[in-house]
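Session log. Operator J.P. requested a structure for one protein chain; no other inputs attached. Running the standard single-chain path with token output.
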Amino acid sequence: MNPEKFRGTTVALVTPFHKDGSINVETLKELIDWQIEQGTDVILAGGTTGESATLSHDEHHILMDITVEHVDGRVPVLCGTGSNSTEEAKSLTAYAKKAGADAALVVTPYYNKPTQYGLYLHYKTIAESTDLPLILYNVPGRTACNLDAQTTVKLAAMENIMGIKEASGDLAQIMYILNNRPNKFLVLSGDDAITLALLALGGDGVVSVVANQAPALLHDMVHTALKGEFTRARDLFYRLLPLMELNFVETNPSPVKTALAIMGKIEDNFRLPLTPLTAENAEKMQKVLVDLGLVKKKG
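Structure written below.
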């Protein structure tokens, strides 16, 4: 296990669909190639930005297989394998190992609202079922439960738990983890808008939504900060900030998928209950993309 491979920028890749709702495999491959060309360090398949909650088990398997096969070792592949069922998460993690993924990202159980002891046992059970490296994923705004800093540090002592994607937005909690983590335990931002702050505090990178639209610019910002060049990193961050914020004007991944459709990268297809961005917000997205030079101004 080499956690260093996961420092930098991980794209939480969207899952492109055809109009009939099936996975658009060719577009997925094109997105992967573009991300690697743009410098993205790690590809995440089947994360929450990839609409994992609407994927069947077979589709999860297909997504893992295609991503690992098409990446072909060019960068590490991280696969989302979390569930509110411990047994289901174990099963998806086992398949990620079989598919050849480099690590699995495991979100906290949603809806169940387990205790901290329940969360500890959930992750411990998954970790003991595999030798695949695991990254914890804490996003209480979407799951209705928070993985406390103390629980995270306790889990970090396990051999194959190598990091956390922290999207609590609680800098005090993140600082506790950073200050008490064991060596080589990664702390990755799960919220684009706090990435620079987390890096300044000693964090290791980001699992990013905005990397879908601006992978090269984000990569430049993160690696500039990792080198300690914070004046330039701050300038790059504030260039990206309007897009980071607009990506959550409606429920993720509606804004980012609509943006990618505007950029000509995908078709604007979702699975219900998610829908395309409203016309008003799509117009705002068009303007921000133009300002960043990601699309040309109409007319």
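Operator note: Residues 16 and 22 are 9 Å apart (CA to CA).
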